[in-house]
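Exercise 7. Given the encoded structure of a 388-residue chain, write a plausible sequence.
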């Protein structure tokens, strides 16, 4: 009897271990998957965020900073993607700039994986795909689909209530792992507070003029398809919005940064430095709740029958038809709006101008596809390839 019970327990334990390994193996692979990035002709240096705040060195909070310095001195701009790693249009936009952009005047700082830990995290409970791929002239290029917040493997435990520093506003406990709730950061805080503190150090040490934070937002959320800016940057945002709307034909508007909602990049960067901050939101149907399954196809095409039905009832905050909101539209919009903000600033402050060439526009990306702008690592010299 005892021998039979022992065998049953042993078999149950083996089955349990197999199930745990079967479920955990794909997550382990996702966390350790590396994307090949080709350094374009404009990249002059590759740094780490820890170069500006050494306390995060060697941790998953650290991330690469790509520097594109022009031959002629001028102003400085910082562009960040993957603040929320389940909104990869920002990541792809920054990667295209790294592979294609050339700066003639001034300096451009690019951080493709701002919340690096969030890019290693997933949302399997909501059925998110672990990866997505884009078509290129040389094959498929695959990327991780991340999470909105940093991984609990890198920052845990969460507090019962997150008290924002230094404004002391009480926020959700999860927001302590959200790098768009921890600005301006805290040097002796938790890792994601240290990430935003390190970014503030970059802005202050390099006297950065413009900071642009790239995001995606639900079509049912009013703050979407827009530029969010505080009072001191609102005029520049308005000029950029009106220009791209007139020249390129896509809808875009300006939203004021709320004064009493703390921790946001478009609020705290402006309040705690001389930098002019902007946050760009592209419509991302994948994030809406009333959609079909959260598939890679939905992410890529932005086409969903439920949202189409809601659009006909005027329940969405963006134009929406059978064509959806494709990845090409979202990435193209980020590229065009970012470049126009920089152009408008350069016209206003010629002594701090930032002149950038070779960034595709909205129309270019819609016509050619996102993958068209990525180099083939197999045809690139090894010294030009970064694994991230």
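Solution.
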């Amino acid at each position: 009897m005892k021998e039979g019970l022992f065998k049953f327990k042993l078999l149950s334990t083996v089955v349990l271990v197999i199930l745990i390994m079967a479920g955990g193996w794909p997550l382990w692979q996702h966390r350790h998957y590396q994307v090949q990035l080709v350094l374009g002709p404009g990249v002059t240096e590759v740094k780490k965020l820890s170069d500006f705040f050494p306390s995060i060195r060697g941790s998953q909070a650290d991330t690469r900073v790509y520097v594109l310095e022009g031959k002629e001195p001028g102003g400085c701009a910082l562009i960040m993607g993957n603040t929320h790693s389940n909104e990869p249009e920002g990541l792809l936009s920054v990667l295209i700039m790294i592979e294609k952009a050339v700066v003639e005047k001034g300096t451009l700082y690019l951080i493709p994986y701002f919340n690096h830990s969030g890019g290693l995290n997933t949302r399997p409970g909501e059925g998110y795909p672990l990866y997505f791929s884009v078509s290129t002239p040389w094959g498929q290029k695959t990327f991780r689909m991340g999470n909105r917040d940093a991984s609990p493997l890198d920052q845990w435990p969460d507090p019962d209530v997150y008290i924002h520093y230094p404004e002391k506003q009480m926020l959700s406990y999860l927001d302590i792992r959200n790098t768009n709730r921890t600005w301006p950061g805290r040097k002796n805080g938790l890792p994601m507070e240290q990430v935003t503190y390190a970014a503030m150090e970059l802005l202050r040490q390099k006297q950065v003029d413009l900071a642009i934070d790239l995001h995606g937002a639900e079509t049912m959320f009013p703050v979407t398809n827009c530029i969010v800016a505080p009072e001191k940057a609102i005029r520049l945002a308005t000029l950029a919005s009106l220009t791209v709307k007139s020249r390129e034909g896509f809808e875009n508007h300006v939203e004021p940064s709320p004064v009493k909602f703390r921790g946001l990049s478009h609020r705290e960067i402006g309040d705690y430095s001389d930098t002019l901050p902007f946050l760009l939101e592209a419509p991302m149907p994948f994030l809406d709740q009333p959609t079909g399954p959260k598939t890679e196809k939905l992410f890529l095409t932005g086409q969903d029958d439920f949202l189409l039905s809601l659009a006909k009832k005027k329940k969405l905050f963006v134009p929406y038809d059978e064509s959806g909101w494709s990845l090409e539209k979202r990435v193209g919009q980020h590229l065009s709006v970012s470049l126009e903000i920089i152009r408008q600033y350069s016209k206003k402050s010629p002594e701090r101008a930032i002149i950038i060439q070779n960034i595709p526009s909205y129309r270019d990306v819609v016509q050619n596809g996102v993958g068209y702008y990525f180099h083939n690592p197999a045809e690139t010299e090894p010294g030009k390839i970064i694994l991230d």
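Remark. The two ends are 55 Å apart (CA to CA). Students should compare their own answers with the one above.
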